[in-house]
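Section 5.1 Outputs to date
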Amino acid sequence: MNRLDQELIPEEALLSERHEYVIVNQDVARVGISHIAADRLSTVVSIELPEVGQIIEQGDPLATLETETGEMEVFSPVSGEVVSINDALVAEPLNLTHDSYGLGWLVEISPSDAQELSALMSPEAYLQSIAG
């Protein structure tokens, strides 16, 4: 496990096997992709996000990232209603790869099933899962 990778992931983040993260603040879950997934992308040239108010189910496509080498879908790690999208990221998609946990978040969701959050991994468990 790379110490730098461990230091880059916020300790409050919960992560999925598909490299999405969730950071919950009160009743809102901020969703993005881990810095490890972001580092594997070629240059992101555009991002498509869902509409505010859209209901998303866990595992549904949440965003489409267009890179210099093709498209990649990001899937929602939680179910709920999209309450905010990162318009600034759409305008400046490079923030996804430069600051995935800060300026590079994708959407904020009001989670509808707290049990889904408990199925996600801690940063330590996530790093162990991708190391082996």
